[in-house]
């Protein structure tokens, strides 16, 4: 049964970083060398991530949002262009499109793993003339199906930029066979699989894209001695201090992924059969990074909806989270397409993510599971 009332239980956080490796040692080293901004940790973290994922070029930047912005610019996205974005994602995906002066066109997600519905993206692309790029999001760590080269109208080929902010670990080359994306964008925000205390990265096999992203992230310096700039660049560099944290985090990525998988398996095993709880699944062709373990709560069978359950868990000091408001419903994008996107809308109403920190202990997770089982009684 649930917790005794005399002693308030300790809060179980939703998804917090794990900083117990070489993070302190490497940042102390960067400070001792007086290299907070530029330094060796930057190329090291780029090489570590590029090697891990199996891509040729990696550019470290200040956030996942900056990575998306620069990748879109490198794909030639600009004012008047449209970019297809799944409506179910964090708002940063669409904001990056807006920063380019372009307009997001929202499409629905597929019902199983909530990635962009490629058939719908195709239909939208064939009905519009301004679609310059498409931006699938690997939601919650589950990979999306590779966007196929064929099946677009005529010889039209959109540029594919993937928002892999939530899926480092799910995007290694073996799982990407058949894909042809121009760039993958990562986030190292505090709650992501690995963190740099804020940061991101653009990954690409296209040398031109890699060079362009690095140039734009560094204020577009054409002649650094005479300060000649042929483009309007950005100050989107990652600091060497952040990169030092990233190097330490990358040393433990397999351990982090194993923890996420163990957490997911435990939730799925222990919550299977609870009426009204729909478990997330992994497609046979995919390997999720299980960034946030997210179930659906069917009010009719469970007895309360996801938001009521979230409130109930909060009373027991268990943090949980609903999904982002679909972007076609967001006031910030009121001027964009607002048609019915039924799958995303249904998923949004029912989804609830449970505590998923790499450091979640067995006893903490048992408390979460018990609370979810008990809440409906
Ligand atoms: C976290 C996240 C981002 C943005 O990353 P920041 O590093 O916070 O800028 C973009 N898209 C998705 C899907 C994310 O989850």
Q: How would you portray this structure in words?
A:
There is one protein chain. With 377 residues, the protein is α/β, with parallel strands linked by helices. 34% of the residues lie in helices and 11% in strands. The protein is built from 12 helices and 10 strands. The strands form 2 sheets. It has a 7-stranded mixed sheet, sandwiched between helices. The model has no long low-confidence stretch (mean pLDDT 93). Bound molecules: pyridoxal-5'-phosphate.
Give the key terms.
377 residues; alpha/beta; seven-stranded mixed beta sheet; three-stranded antiparallel beta sheet; 10 strands
Summarize the entry for a quick read.
The protein has 377 residues and is an alpha/beta fold. It is built from 12 helices and 10 strands. Strand 2 (82-86), helix 4 (92-99) and strand 3 (103-107) form a beta-alpha-beta unit.
Question: Secondary-structure map with pairings?
Answer:
Blueprint: H1 23-32, H2 41-53, E1 57-61, H3 64-74, E2 82-86, H4 92-99, E3 103-107, H5 118-127, E4 131-134, E5 159-163, E6 183-187, E7 200-204, H6 207-217, H7 240-250, H8 253-271, E8 277-278, E9 294-297, H9 299-302, H10 306-315, H11 342-350, E10 351-353, H12 362-375
Parallel strand pairs: 2-3, 2-4, 4-5, 5-6
Antiparallel strand pairs: 1-7, 6-7, 8-9, 9-10
The chain binds pyridoxal-5'-phosphate.
């Amino acid at each position: 049964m649930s917790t005794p009332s005399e002693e308030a239980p300790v809060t179980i956080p939703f998804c917090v970083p794990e900083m117990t490796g070489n993070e302190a040692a490497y940042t102390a080293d960067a400070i001792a060398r007086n290299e907070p901004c530029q330094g060796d940790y930057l190329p090291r973290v780029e090489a570590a991530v590029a090697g891990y994922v199996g891509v040729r070029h990696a550019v470290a930047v200040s956030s996942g949002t900056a990575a998306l912005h620069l990748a879109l610019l490198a794909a030639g996205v600009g004012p008047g262009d449209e970019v297809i974005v799944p409506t179910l994602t964090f708002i940063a995906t669409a904001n990056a499109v807006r920063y380019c002066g372009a307009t997001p066109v929202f499409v629905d997600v597929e019902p199983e793993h909530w990635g962009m519905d490629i058939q719908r993206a195709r239909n939208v692309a064939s009905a519009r003339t301004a679609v310059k790029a498409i931006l699938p999001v690997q939601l919650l760590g589950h990979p999306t199906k590779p966007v196929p080269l064929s099946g677009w109208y005529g010889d039209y080929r959109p540029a594919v930029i993937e928002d892999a902010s939530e899926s480092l670990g799910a995007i290694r080359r073996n799982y990407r066979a058949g894909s042809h994306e121009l760039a993958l964008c990562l986030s190292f925000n505090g709650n992501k699989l690995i963190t740099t205390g804020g940061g991101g990265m653009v990954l690409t096999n296209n040398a031109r894209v890699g060079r362009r992203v690095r140039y734009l992230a560094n204020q577009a310096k054409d002649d650094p001695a005479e300060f000649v700039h042929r483009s309007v660049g950005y100050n989107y560099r990652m600091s060497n201090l952040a990169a030092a944290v990233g190097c330490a985090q990358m040393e433990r990525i397999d351990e982090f992924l194993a923890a996420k998988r163990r957490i997911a398996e435990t939730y799925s095993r222990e919550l299977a059969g609870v009426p009204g709880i729909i478990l997330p699944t992994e497609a046979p062709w995919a390997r999720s990074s299980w960034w946030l373990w997210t179930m659906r709560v069917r009010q009719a069978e469970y007895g309360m909806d996801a938001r009521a359950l979230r409130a109930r868990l909060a009373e027991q000091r268990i943090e949980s989270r609903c999904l982002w408001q679909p972007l076609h419903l967001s006031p910030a994008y009121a001027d964009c397409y607002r048609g019915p996107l039924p799958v995303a809308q249904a998923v949004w109403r029912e989804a609830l993510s449970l505590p998923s920190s790499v450091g979640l202990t067995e006893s903490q997770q048992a408390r979460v599971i018990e609370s979810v089982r008990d809440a409906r009684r």
